Amino acid sequence: MILERIKNTEDVKELSWDELEVLAYEIRRFLVEKVSENGGHLASNLGVVELTIALHKVFSLPKDKIIWDVGHQAYTHKLLTGRKDGFDTLRKFGGMSGFPKRKESDCDAFDTGHSSTSISAGLGYVEAREITGEDYHVVSVIGDGAFTGGLAYEALNNAARLKSNLVIVLNDNNMSISENVGGMSKYLDSIRTAHVYNELKKGVTNALNQIPGVGKNMVSSIRKTKNSIKQLFVPGMLFEEMGITYLGPVDGHDMKKLDRVLREAKRMDHAVLVHVLTKKGKGYVPAEKSPSKFHGTGPFDIRTGDALEKKEKDTYTDVFGKVMYKEGAKEPKLVAITAAMKDGTGLVGFQRKYPERFFDVGIAEGHAVTFAAGLAAAGLKPVFAVYSSFLQRGYDQIVHDVCIQNLPVVFAIDRAGLVGSDGETHQGLLDMAYLSHIPNMTILSPKNKWELADMLRFAIKYDGPIAIRYPRGTAYDGLSEFRAPIEYGKSELIYEESDIAVFSVGHMMETAHQVWKSLKQKGFSCSLINSRFVKPMDEEMLQQMAKHHRLFVTIEEGVRTGGYGEQVRNYVAKEELPVKVLVNAVCDCYVEQGSIPVLRKELLLDADSIVEKTVTAFGKKAD
Length: 623
Prior knowledge:
Blueprint: H1 17-38, H2 43-46, H3 49-58, E1 65-68, H4 75-79, H5 118-132, E2 138-143, H6 150-159, E3 166-172, H7 183-192, H8 197-209, H9 215-225, H10 227-230, H11 237-242, E4 245-251, H12 255-266, E5 271-277, H13 285-289, H14 316-330, E6 334-338, H15 348-353, E7 358-360, H16 365-377, E8 381-387, H17 388-391, H18 395-403, E9 410-414, H19 431-436, E10 442-444, H20 449-461, E11 466-469, E12 492-495, E13 499-504, H21 509-521, E14 526-530, E15 533-535, H22 539-546, E16 549-559, H23 564-575, E17 580-586, H24 596-602, H25 607-618
Parallel strand pairs: 1-2, 2-3, 3-5, 4-5, 6-7, 6-8, 8-9, 9-11, 10-11, 13-14, 13-16, 16-17
Antiparallel strand pairs: 10-15, 12-14
């Protein structure tokens, strides 16, 4: 196998074109095999195999810097930089990350995980290169989906002023996770149909220059007046007008063409954008047919593409989607918003039933929040469904555009808490902390699937900013007999005894119930409370529990600082309640990839660890 001969990034340069074609085939086969075993991002990686090989052939790593936007398409890059053996531990705890990591290899120039960042980071490298006098090339690889993010445009605006080389590779596969939307998508569609432009321009210029006496003047004159004409039909005009040279579009699966255009791009003394057309999922038929399904996938059967782990129960996302679908019929002013994640957030059914009330704004979370604020100010009831780690990108808009005006926007925060294998950039551990200190914001978290449905209906009727946070994965259906109506700011008392009071936040109720059972088996008297509201905190319940309990135990899947447990501890101290508080939360750290059970055990958030800490904190054995 040729792939076995690739030990570092320079090895690609020694291969013939025929050998490179074989290498591309072997890489695709390898990726399908490994992702089928461990899960991961497949379709995006299959689409950039030739592009990645060409980049490694033209540029010299780690001296030159390649920055992968989002980074979930960097598997081939990892293979070409000597990390083939790491794929046995891909996305596992203590193993190789599914994203670029500087601590993992000096060929990874920048840590990524969220979109639209690569051009900004690339600009930083370019300016640093000029200041330090070093000599290396910088390449920012960004997808067409990421181009819907405002940060990309801010970076392009600055890149246009560069007086030295920056290569921007636009990987255009007409997809982000869901299909791309908006003006940039349509613009790139028009460019894809204009392959002949660059050859035509070159031919006309050469022909005019051949005319004795007047040719050069004609070319000069045309260049001065051409803008009004060429905007009608010239591909890449948006970039050219900004001062960024546009090259392409070029077939992203033709390595010879890629080699030529990349070598041309690296010779320029300013910013240049290379437009590359690729097919997401290329080389594996199930991924070509269903790129969204294979964007991020668990283990699957290679022969059929079917998932090995069959879903038997509803996920929290499923429950959210079903309630939205039903409430849409009752509430004509209910509208749904997603940021390129209609499948991932469960809004496909709502979109099909109420297309005029569904909005996919693309990868643009900040815009989505302010857009929701505008809808709410105009009298509608917007629900923005978004992953927890992606909502961070709209923080200022939440503060300034929603909460200051106290507008009735519902934030349906999916993937709250630990998400597992995607690692630091995707864990949803910060939302409670950063939302809790915003005035006018209300935060709820359901203990099970029934409570999520009740909370969503409550939120739709609520007149103000409100967030519901719920996790990835199968929805807990235990404790279904406890379903008291949702009352603003009130928690739910599940079991009332004395001595130890366990306060559970949201989906950690399953763990909290196990803790309660274990403490009972050990002879402790123990109460169990479903907090329901992270903000406002139920102070009345705290006062009530303090009368008959000596220890409060809080359990949450979020960072400790600014979290629910810290709020409880601060309240207890302020009111001088005669109670100790044991906070069980995630340490103020970034949590790497791994399965959720493994991560909880490492973070001492599993039931056994919490019981052990509780017994120690209580200070004496049960009677």
